[in-house]
Write a structure and sequence with these properties.
heterodimer; A: mainly beta; four-stranded mixed beta sheet; four-stranded antiparallel beta sheet; elongated; B: alpha+beta; 8 strands
Chain lengths: 127, 152
């Protein structure tokens, strides 16, 4: 009985029924002595629509892309999606200094290494 | 005994056929909106950039996903109902870094052309670029717009 009511009550346009596909963004990952640098292609994602989480050595990126367009669809090769991807991050990343920017639909994520893991030149002293 | 084997063969043959068909359908679904890359580099030129076209009565709207391109990297040409978008995505591999993973495919030139369903008034076309999405507003030419005829 209660189940029946539930079905009737649901509105056709309720957000729960709209399925947005989840895709993984393509990424480039670079490293130098000071930091790890990650680029991710996420066209259509505004900088407020992205969440970056770094917890227990696990970096997760999730974002939502909305497409605003008017008119009848003639053809469509991409649409609204949810971007999601997770990475394992090595120890020794200075979490407080992580910096992210969006540049023309590309996420630039800088993960600086903490001082302890940076390579260090040792000077030989004459004694 | 022989005929039985044959039956088996036929059955498996049919299953294989079915699986191939389904594979193709599945690929259709996964290719839609799959991020280009994933080890394959950019797909063929006529597949990039991903583009949508909408028809809103008095104008067409073309939306293309061009991540990493600035407005100076893009060229848009229109003539009648022929539209061409081309550009170069500059490689952003930073200097002095070692690469761990490269899926986005470095510097790439692309060019994609469309034959639009109607003629366009090319003097009134607007183009915007935001968050890696190029939006073109293409007003239809006077002759291509539907006219309402009043009966006198």
């Amino acid at each position: 009985m209660s189940e029946k009511q539930e079905i009737v009550k649901r509105d056709e346009h309720s957000p729960a029924l709209r399925q947005v596909p989840t895709v993984t963004p393509s990424v480039d990952i670079y490293e130098n002595d000071d930091e790890l640098l990650l680029y991710a292609d996420m066209p259509g994602v505004a900088k407020d629509a992205i969440a970056i989480n770094l917890e227990n050595g696990r970096l997760t990126i999730s974002a939502q892309r909305n497409i605003a367009a008017e008119g009848e669809v003639q053809f469509e090769e991409f649409g609204e999606v949810k971007y999601e991807r997770a990475f394992s991050v090595p120890q020794g990343i200075d979490i407080n200094k992580v910096k992210a920017t969006m540049d023309n639909g590309v996420l630039n994520l800088h993960l600086p290494k903490s001082e302890a893991v940076k390579p260090r030149q040792i000077e030989v002293q004459t004694g | 005994m022989h005929s039985q084997w044959n039956d088996f063969d036929q059955m498996f043959g049919a299953m294989d056929l079915l699986r191939n068909r389904m594979g193709r359908v599945n690929r259709l679904f996964t290719d839609f909106d799959r991020s280009w890359g994933l080890g394959r580099g950019w797909p063929s030129v006529d597949n990039w950039p991903r583009t949508n076209l909408y028809d809103a009565n008095d104008q067409l709207q073309l939306v293309a996903a061009v991540p990493g391109l600035g407005k100076d990297d893009l060229n848009i040409k229109i003539q009648g109902n022929y539209l061409e978008i081309s550009g170069t995505r500059k490689e952003k591999a930073p200097e002095g870094y070692t690469a761990h993973r490269v899926e986005r495919g470095g510097e790439t030139f692309f060019s994609r052309s469309f034959t639009l369903p109607v003629e366009i008034n090319s003097t009134k076309v607007e183009a915007h670029l935001k968050d890696g999405i190029l939006t073109l507003k293409l007003p239809k030419a006077e002759t291509a717009q539907a006219k309402r005829i009043t009966i006198s």
